[in-house]
Structures are given as C-alpha cells and as structure tokens.
Amino acid sequence: MEHRPRKQFAQHWLKSDKALNQIVQAAEITQCDRILEIGPGTGILTRRLLPLAQSVVAVEIDRDLCQLLAKQLGKTENFLLLQGDILSLDLASQLTPFPAFHNPNKVVANIPYNITGPILEKLLGTITNPATEPFDSIVLLVQKEVAERLYAQPSSRAFGALSVRVQYLAECELISLVPAGAFHPPPKVDSAVVRLRPRKLSPAANDPRRLETLVNLGFAAKRKMLRNNLKSIVDRDRLTQLLEQLEVNPQARAEDLSVAQWVALSNTLRVRVGEAGEAGEARV
Ligand code: SAH
Question: Of the chain's two ends, which shows fewer C-beta atoms within 10 Å, N or C?
C-alpha cells in the first residue's frame, strides 16, 4: 500500500541513510533504553531503533499510517504504537497497561516541523513548569533555523527568547546539518539534527515567573537596549546598577546576556513582577 505524504501532518519521509545514521548515533542507544518516537511515519527510523533499544513507543497521528505500521511492525515485541496527537496525549496514562514501555528515557524523532515549539515544551516543560522527570536525551530533526536558535551562543544573531527558554532547561548541541534533498518530498527548508540533554537547573531561578517575564519583555524589541525593553518593570538606574554588578555592559541588548546572567538578573530583583509582564505593576 502506497501512502501519499500529507501536507496537513507535515509529512516528509527521511530517505537519507547518512542522516538516519547520524540521528541513531547521536542517541547513543543501549539495550536499556526505552525510546519515545514522535511521528514514525512509514517507520524508516523506527526500524533502526528497534534492534538497538529495549523498547520503542511511537506516537503517530495519521490513522492510515498507523494501520500500515501495525501491519508491518505489529508483531515486533519491543514496539508499541499509539495513535494520537503527541501534544494532547497523556503518555503516562496511555502507557499504564504496558509496563514494558513505562517512562521512556530517550526521545528520538524526525518531528512534524509545524509543531516544533509545542513539542519542545511538551518534552522539556517550561521555565515555570519544567518536566518533573526529564528525559536523559532528546535527539530531533528540526528546521535549520530553529536548530540555530537552540544552540546559539549569547551575542550571536540567532540568540533569542527561545534560546534562553530552552537552554535554561537543557544543554543543546548541533549534531549535523541535513539538506532538504534528504527527504521525500523535500521540505522548503533545510534541517538539522540536534541533541538536547535536560539538566539540573543551575543556577536555578528562585522565582521562575519573574525570569519568564524578564525574558519575554527583554526580547520584545530585539534591536533595543535591554534597559529600554525592561523600563516598565525595572527602574533604569537600578537596572544599570544591577547590570554593572553582573559585569554586563549597561547598554547591552537582550541577546548579549548568557542564560546564567538572565538567571542572576532575575534572582537579584527582589520584587515579584506581574504575570505576563504587565507594565507598572511592580517596579523595582
Ligand atoms: N519519522 C518519519 C516521518 C516524519 S514526518 C520519517 O522520518 O520518515 C512527521 C510525522 O509526524 C508524520 O508521520 C506525521 O503524520 C506525524 N505527525 C504530525 N503531527 C503529529 C502529531 N500532532 N502527533 C503525532 N504525530 C504527528
């Protein structure tokens, strides 16, 4: 049975052996690993994971693909297929009847790019609500521009709010670039394999809501100096003083602060700022 790739579900089958090898190697799979795959599609990556891992649970939204996969891989003992939307599915409760697949410790996936942000949130949590049982590692194919933001260093063009939000929760590395031609049909963008390793928050924000608000407001107008973007919640002179204490140039833009400096800034401000950063609620 031939399955025509569906645009609606961002279906682009990976066909490059080289890229598949890079993904699998980056995941450093052992026989103890219980893997979560998002969007197995026709199972090209799944087939590589199964012989290496203890188990693979795959979540696929497309019913027709699920039928196809069930036919082809249904008898494989260490494989479990769940039909559903990864974003709304409650994985832990879906896995309750299947003890061998409980608590997957790694994620390996060529994900649908149209929901990359929400998938990252689902896997890592957020600044205010980090995942309570983080994965050991998460290896994903993503759009190249998103990858660049994930592993960007401070003061580089790609370093933005997403970089701070994700890097606060996980170490991010570029594994390799993957050209559009590695897929069928080729997407409009190039891709990259990234590896995220969730880590202990260090230093941790003592008020995560405040950190989130600062990051949202700080990056709101990227060209502006940080002290202008934050003037509704932090007095200019006070901020200048704090930035000097943190050895940051008072004229810095949001992109010039490292994740540690964002956390330090947040921890140095004593007064709680309003949710979503409403102006003037609490000046410090
Ligand atoms: N891993 C396969 C397919 C990648 S394409 C390969 O490398 O060839 C993305 C896959 O994600 C498709 O199979 C698509 O149907 C699936 N998908 C799209 N949205 C999804 C969602 N919300 N939840 C789960 N799977 C989804």
Answer: N
Ligand 1 within 6 A of 134 CB? no
- Closest residue CA from atom 6 of ligand 1: 13
Confidence of residue 181 (pLDDT cuts 50, 70, 90): very high
By the 8 A CB rule, do 41 and 11 touch?
yes
Is 3.40.50.150 the CATH number for 7-198? yes
Q: What is the CA radius of gyration of the chain?
A: 21
Atom of ligand 1 nearest to the CA of 41: 13
pLDDT for the residue numbered 1: 56
Residue type, 257: L
CB of 112 closer than 6 angstroms to any ligand 1 atom: yes
pLDDT digits (tens, 9 = 90+) for 188-208: 999 999 999 999 887 899 999
To test ligand 1's pocket by mutation, which of 11, 91, 122, 123 has the most ligand atoms within 8 angstroms of CB?
Answer: 11
| Pocket test residue of 15, 47, 111, 121 for ligand 1, highest count of atoms within 8 A of CB | 111
CATH fold of 208-268 reads Helicase, Ruva Protein; domain 3 (1.10.8)
Confidence tier at 273 by pLDDT (50, 70, 90): low
Contact 217, 210 (CB under 8 A): no
pTM equals 0.93
Structure tokens at 91: 């994985």
From-to residues of CATH 1.10.8.100 in the chain: 208-268
